[in-house]
Amino acid sequence: MKNSTLIKGTAAIAVGAALLLGGGGTLAAWNAADAAAPGTISSGDLNVKASTGKWIDRAGNVINNIGAYRVVPGDKLTYTQDLTVTLIGDKMAANIVVSGANAANNFTPANVIITGPALKVGGAVVANPLTAISGTSTRTVTATTSFEFKATTSDRNDVNTSYNLGDVSYTLTQVVSAPGLADPTPQP
Amino acid sequence: MRTKRRLQAAALTALAVVLGLFTVQGTYALWSAAASASPGTITSASFDMALQAVNTGATTNMTLSDGKPATLTLSPTGTLGPGTSVYGGMVVSNNTNAGGQFNTAITASQPSVANLNGGALATYIIVKAKVAASPSECSTATAYTAIDTAGLVSPTVAKAGSTVFCFQVSLMSGTPSTVNGQPLKGQAVTIQTTLSARQLCGVPNVC
Predict the structure, then answer these.
(1) Containing domain of residue B81, as a range?
(2) Which residues of B are less than 8 Å from A71 in CB distance?
(3) Does residue B205 lie within any of the structural domains?
C-alpha cells in the first residue's frame, strides 16, 4: 500500500516536474492586439493672383489703352483689378494689404484727386484677417484706384502732363488667429 | 565598436548643436504670397485751337509753344471807301488730342480800332462780325452784327470740329475827305479782337 502511495506521489511529482521541464515552450501572460489607420494629413493653401486690370472713364466706358488716352479737366478714371485669393486650412487666416511704389506725379497736386489703391470684397472694404470659407477655396478681392482731373483746373494748367501710377503690390500673409497654432517666434 | 559609436554620438551632437545655432539665428514664418501690377501712366491732353486766316490761308495755334497768345492778321481784301465794306475771317479748329469728350466755345471780344501814324480814320470805321459754318459766308453781307462787351460766342466746337468768325469792316457813308486839314484818304487803322477758347463741361453736376 505504501508503495502505491509512494508510487503515486512520485508519479505526481514527476509529472509536475515533467511539466516544468517540458518547457521547451514559455509561459506568457495575457495579450491582445488590434490595428488602426490614423489617416492622411494634408496641408492647405494660401495664394493671391492678380488678373489683368482695366481702366474705365466716369461713364463706365472701358479705356483699352491708357497710354494713348488723354485726360482733360473733368475726367475721372478708375482702375480696377480682380485678385483671386486662395485660402484653405481649418485654422487659415490671412491679411491682405496693398501698397504702391515708384509713382511719379507731374500734375499740380491741387488739380488732381488720387484715391486708393483700396481693396473690397463684394463691394465692402476688406476686413482683415480673411478666413477660409467652408465649401470654397477662393474668393475675389477687387483693388481700385481712381484718378480725377479736377474740373476747376483753369487756363491751360497741366496740359500735356503725366502721372505714372508706378507699381502696385498685393501681399497676402497668414496670421495666427485661432488657438492651436504655434506662435511664429524664434525658438532658442 | 566603442570608438565608432563614440564618433557617431559626437557627430549627432554636433549636428544638433548646429541645428540649434541656426534656429536661434533664423525665424519661423507663416505662409505668404504676393502679386503686383502696373496700372500705367495717365497723360493729360493738349488744348490746341488752330487758327487759319480765310483770305491768306495763314495758320497758327491760338497759343504758341512758349505759352504766349498768337496774333493772326486777317488782311481783308479791297480798299475802303465811304459806304463800302471789306471782309475777312478766320477758321478756328478744335485740335485737341483728348481721349474723351472735349467741347469748346470760342469768344471774339469787342474789337478795338486804333489810328496809325496819328490819323483820324478810326472814328469812321465800323466793325461787325458773325459766326459762320464755312469761310465762303464771310464775303456775304448778310447777318453781320456789332459785337458788344460780352463778345461774340461761337456754337459748341467739338473735338476735331471748327467754326468760322467773319468780320466786316465798313467806312461810314458820310465820312469826310479831310479831318483837321488832313486827308483821310490813305490813312490806316489797326483793328484788334481777342479770341478766347473755353472748355465746356462734359459731365453734368461735376463742373
Answers:
(1) 49-199
(2) 42-45, 98-100
(3) no
Residue B24 lies in a domain: no
Which of B42, B43, B63, B96 to probe by mutation at the A interface, max A CB count within 10 Å?
A: B42
pLDDT of residue B150: 95
Question: What does the pLDDT look like over B93-148, one tens digit per residue?
Answer: 999 999 988 999 999 999 999 999 999 999 999 999 999 999 999 999 999 999 99
On the question of pLDDT at A180 being above 80, the answer is: no
**CA B108, CA B91: separation in Å to the nearest integer?**
12
Domain boundaries, chain A: 45-174
Domain assignment present for residue B69? The answer is yes
Residue B16 lies in a domain: no
Q: Do residues A65 and A115 touch, judged by C-beta distance below 8 A?
A: no
Are A165 and B38 a contacting pair at CB < 8 A?
yes
Q: Which DSSP symbol is given to B124? A: G
Give the B-side interface with A, CB within 8 Å.
23-24, 26-47, 63, 67, 96-100, 102, 199, 201-203, 206-207
What's the domain count of chain B? 1
Burial A145-168 (b: 16+ CB within 10 A, else e): bbbbbbbebeeeebbebebbbeeb
User: Is the ipTM beyond the 0.85 threshold?
Assistant: no
